Amino acid sequence: MMQFTAEMIAGFLGGTVEGNGQAAVGSVAKIEEAKAGDLVFLSNPKYEEFLYRTGATIAIVNADLIVREALPEGLTLVRVENAYKAFASLLDLYVANKPKKTGISPLASIHSTATVGEGVYVGEYAVIGEGAVVKAGAQIWPQVYVGDGVRVGERTILYPGVKVYEACELGDDVIVHGGTVIGGDGFGFAPTDDGSFQKIPQIGNVVIEDGVEIGSNCAIDRATMGSTRIKRGAKLDNLIQIAHNVVIGENTVMAAQVGIAGSTKVGRNVMMGGQVGVVGHIAIADGVKIGSQSGIPNNILTPGVTVFGSPAYPGLEGHRIQASVKQLPELRKQVAELSRQLKVLEARLGERAEE
């Protein structure tokens, strides 16, 4: 990382300096592990205790932070409105200043009919297929496969081991992390009279719009017909399965191990926690929030609702049901005891009736 002074950081972030404006940092670190020359940030009150014993040189903090103890000698604060957001902006600056990969490796395989734009990086053992188009500034890292007829947009980055099957389209400023497969066949098989399954050809493609980021080892299946589509600005974590003909709306985010079954339509600005499972052929409205490990068996048509559980229920109801499940063993004992007492009472009433 380049050297930045507290004054430079405050100027970039629109913050104020509390301490030595010429204090300089050249690396970033977690507040609990930092040493001299490191930049840290504090936004979560849970970590405030580390501020008073950190070894960092500069700490970015919220403007309204009340300093409750003596700060370590040599620590300078930069106060900003939102420390978390400000730190993210600084990391963007750091990434922008990192040297970019350039040039085409002689060990890459590029078909004679492929088109490669200006400033494209193509690493060792990458393959760019027949008729593929890779636009200006894109980065194709080692061992990436870009299939026949694929379109890769400007400044898009495909990290090592990404596989993009034929005819798929990636927009500008897309990031795809290692091991992800885009455009593999959807899971389409028709049962036959003899009990076997006949494969249904998957002749569609995958379209990934501008500004999408996809984590490592995801599988995004091509459509049976038409397109599986990930819309502008969506963010997908690692180990996610998107089935054939699914549509993911703008700026939707999904944590790890989410699975979306075929032909489901997910709205914009939806948030899904880890390990959410969604059945096929349903719709999820804009702005819906789905808690981790929830199962979604039916449409969610109310925009902005929060759901939780499997099957998922609206927020508070889902939490109540989850809490009730924990009480089932005790409730079962109580029901058994009540049943026993009822039998005793019935027996006594029977005896009295006979007298």
Largest sheet: 11 strands, mixed
Determine the fraction of residues in helical runs and give it as a percent range.
Answer: 10-25%
Give the count of helical stretches. 5
Sum up the overall morphology in one term. flat
User: In the CATH hierarchy, what is the class of the largest domain?
Assistant: Mainly Beta
Q: Could you please say which CATH topology of the largest domain applies here?
A: UDP N-Acetylglucosamine Acyltransferase, domain 1
Average residue-wise pLDDT: 93
Query: What class would the helix/strand composition place it in?
Result: alpha/beta
CATH architecture of the largest domain: 3 Solenoid
Number of beta-strand segments: 39
Looking across the biggest beta sheet, what order are the strands in?
10-13-16-19-24-27-30-33-36-38-39
Q: What's the structural blueprint in terms of helices and strands?
A:
Layout: E1 4-5, H1 6-13, E2 16-18, E3 24-25, E4 27-28, E5 38-42, H2 48-51, E6 58-62, E7 76-80, H3 83-97, E8 109-110, E9 115-116, E10 121-122, E11 127-128, E12 133-134, E13 139-140, E14 145-146, E15 151-152, E16 157-158, E17 163-164, E18 169-170, E19 175-176, E20 181-184, E21 189-191, E22 197-199, E23 205-208, E24 213-214, E25 219-221, E26 227-230, E27 235-236, E28 241-242, E29 247-248, E30 253-254, E31 259-260, E32 265-266, E33 271-272, E34 277-278, E35 283-284, E36 289-290, E37 295-296, E38 306-308, E39 313-314, H4 315-326, H5 328-354
Parallel strand pairs: 4-5, 5-6, 6-7, 8-11, 9-12, 10-13, 11-14, 12-15, 13-16, 14-17, 15-18, 16-19, 17-20, 18-23, 19-24, 20-25, 23-26, 24-27, 25-28, 26-29, 27-30, 28-31, 29-32, 30-33, 31-34, 32-35, 33-36, 34-37, 36-38
Antiparallel strand pairs: 1-3, 2-7, 21-22, 38-39
